[in-house]
Amino acid sequence: MSRPRIAIPLDVNLSGRYEQPRAYAAAVARAGGLPLPIPFGEPSLAGEYLEACDGLLVAGGDFDIPPERYGEVRRPGCGPSRPGRTAFEEAMIEGALAAGMPVLGVCGGMQLLAVVKGGTLHQDLPDDLGVSHEQPPPKDVPSHAVEVAPGSLLERLAAPGTLMVNSTHHQAVRLPGAGVAVTGRAPDGVVEAIELSGHPFALGVQWHPEVLAASDPRHLAILSGLVRAAAERR
């Protein structure tokens, strides 16, 4: 049987080239999936891309979701936005959720998943909460704990208790949105994982399991869960 096809929307760099860190595709392949890089473009194309895929992974990036998208005025701590990529990935998430397709949001992808469901964000954690979640290099080692909620999808995937994660973000989910449960928090209370109730597999994690997957089977299990859910849906 062929591998489940996992869509991974791409970014565009300053020179106009599509790109995405290799760790995403490598982790999906290690988990048994076939990574399919998707060039972002017109949101109207999202449905056709999804028809060619079995699951969706929305990655993070060095930009912020426009705060206007969740009904707020931009404050000084908010970073630059990429409205085109955000609009396309929003359409991909909405289409996947409507179709019952497995969705995994990573870092900024988790934040967009919350916003799609009507949630809001802390525009800048140092300004809003007086905390920093930007660990210094190296970025591929854990730097803080996440307490995993009992009975959650994340617990079933990564095992119960405390999960050590890496941390490279200055924003975070403030209000998770309709039908969204918070299933992981850092010791300082920052939301680190969300899940959509009533959906077979819709999970967001604020850290980067794709980077830790090669060294920690608990993080690989998150990607494996996405791939397994995609296989079951076919």
Structure commentary:
By secondary structure, this protein is of the alpha/beta class. The chain has one domain (5-233): Rossmann fold. Helices cover 30% and strands 25% of the residues. The protein has 8 helices and 15 strands. Helix 3 packs across helix 4. The protein is globular, with a radius of gyration of 16 Å. The termini are close together. The mean pLDDT is 96.
Quote the CATH topology. Rossmann fold
Strand content: 15-25%
| Helix run count | 8
Using the coordinates above, name the CATH class: Alpha Beta
CATH architecture: 3-Layer(aba) Sandwich
Category from helices, strands and their pairing: alpha/beta
Run of helices and strands: EEEHEHEHEHEHEEHEEEEEEHH
Rounded Rg: 16 Å
* First-residue to last-residue Cα separation: 11 Å
Mean pLDDT: 96
Tell me the name of the CATH homologous superfamily: Class I glutamine amidotransferase (GATase) domain
Helix content: 25-40%
Whole-number total of structural domains: 1
Side by side, the strands of the main sheet go 4-1-5-6-15-14-13-9-10
| Biggest sheet record | 9 strands, mixed
Give the tally of β-strands. 15
Low-confidence segments: none
Global morphology: globular
Write the layout of secondary structure elements.
Blueprint: E1 5-9, E2 11-12, E3 18-19, H1 22-30, E4 34-38, H2 46-51, E5 55-58, H3 83-98, E6 103-106, H4 108-116, E7 120-122, H5 125-128, E8 133-134, E9 144-148, H6 153-158, E10 162-165, E11 168-169, E12 172-175, E13 180-185, E14 191-196, E15 202-205, H7 209-212, H8 217-233
